[in-house]
Write a structure and sequence with these properties.
Helix Hairpins, three-stranded antiparallel β-sheet, alpha+beta, 323 residues, Alpha-Beta Plaits
Length: 323
Amino acid sequence: MQIPSPSPTTAEADSSARLAEVASELADDPTLLFDAATWTALGWVAVKVAGIVVLALIVLGVIMRLKNRWVSSVADRPTLDKKRQRVMTVADLVGSASRYVVWAFAIVMILDVIGLPIGPLLAGAGIAGLAIGFGAQTLVKDVISGLFLLFDDTIGIGDLITFNGNTATVEYVGLRLIKARKFDGELLMIPAGEMRTFGNKSIGFARAIVPVDLAYEGDVEAGLSAMEAVAHEWAQTDFAKDVMLEEAPTVQAGHVVSRHTARIIVQVRPGEQFQAERELYALIKKRFDERGVEIPFPRRTVYVKTDGSNPDAVGMAAAAGAD
């Protein structure tokens, strides 16, 4: 059977029906595979499929370009700036979701072009999705939890978090998965549904806490005075004025069994507590050396008990008593 060669206008309008007809004719007569009209009919379908793919790539390119421009608008802000973190987090989510949505629409359009009935496929997908949903409750829980984390703004890229005894910096926040890197380089991949209880050190404020021990036999008052001087001196630095969230650091004193204790506490911007602690420790060491303030060193007292049965031990004890 010979397939007539249609005009371009007719071919574009009836490509789906013609493709089904060509497939039926090829099943009856495989020799039509070598017919020019067959390839013409298939060619129009291929052109439309290629056009859909190109259009999907263009749409994704535009979305990614806008996303990158949005990210660039906050790139100069500090790493822990909340607006920067929010933009980075949402931009990653938009990029990921866009790929899924655009390609899903493209696949549906391609199926329609090649003549496959979309209705039964969507109905089957709905039934399959329902069946999968019962077996993928954990996945659904992760996605819903991820949405709440994003909408509540409780976590963002660059945040320092604690989770299950681990402290790590967030590198990626998605609907299902959160990636955070520990100081030693280990990357934690945490399902959003598991983030029921976690700590965020990058929200609100942080406290720099610098504890120091003072020897019992030393001049404790001199040590506390030096700590007060350090707190006042550090508060006058440019760095301190930039990061402090209260008027001045406080010095607290206490004691334990074998030593006095003192510590400097100051409220600073999140993420700046580590630099503040380094500077305070350096100043404390300098001022203690200048004022001769001692810190306690580990010591051990050894008692030798003898019952007179060991002459050498008795002799050593007597010699020690004579000295």
